[in-house]
Amino acid sequence: MRFGMSGCFLPADMDDVTPAMCRRVRELGFSGIFTRFRANDPHTTPKEKAQRLRSLLADEGVKLYQSTGYWQNMITPDETARQEAASTVRAALQLAGWMGARGIDTGPGSMNPAGPWYPHPDNWTASARRQLVKTLKECVSAAEDAGVFLSLESHQLVTLKTPEITLEILDEIDSPWVRCDYDSANWITLETVFDTTSALNHHFDLLGRHIVSAHAKDIWIENKLAVHLQDGCPGKGNMDFKTLFRRIEALSPDYPVIAEGNSTEELPAVARLFHETAQALEIKVISD
Length: 288
Fold this sequence. Notes:
By secondary structure, the chain is an alpha/beta fold. The strands form two sheets. The protein has an eight-stranded parallel β-barrel with strand order 1-2-3-4-5-6-7-10, surrounded by six helices. A two-stranded antiparallel ribbon has the order 8-9. It contains nine helices and ten strands. The protein has one domain: Divalent-metal-dependent TIM barrel enzymes (TIM Barrel, Alpha-Beta Barrel), CATH 3.20.20. The mean pLDDT is about 100. It starts with a strand and ends in an 8-residue tail after the last helix. It is globular.
């Protein structure tokens, strides 16, 4: 099993990544990172800039497990906008390949103008699913050419609202390069928040052959009169990380588990949780 981290002290611009940051990643107990690089437009960032980062990470022994897919709207009924979204995904895949990334992480987008993970009734329509499939099929060759997984992240608030829907879409795409980036919290519901073990096992039973990475994030229900499930720092909620690690390890010891939802200050505790959980399960942590 491999452990990665995301966010926290990692910068928005790839030019700002330093050897000291890479050493900090390693010292904390992680072998790789998930970067978003919002400052680097995938359409205009030159190859040389990406390759500078690739060399730096290689020299410091840090893997780039994921980079961002830039959160474009792949489900819009506006064909011009959808084609632009597909172009952005293809550019993100090319840039990720230049950087040496294992995959990109992206959701399907949302019809809510406030953000790509926010709810909108049109997110769950048959039209949204058709547009998503069309967009993904237009990106398969770019993923294959780059040697980079197009890893889809799902959530209840977007088109991929259940593992069953995600399975149907990935089966329809039927590509070894379009896969599932499993987020442990995103499909947890009111019915499963106190039994995340059963939920995780159900998700992996359905999607195991499509999963190539995982975001390890916690979730809990808050004491409010309207239902509110809060995701966040691993170790703060109800997530069964032993089951998550066991199921990922069974798919491949080489797959990365990436910490999400935590602050920089919380990283040492998260690293301890990860390593202690792996040790308890007698899972070898790969650090090279």
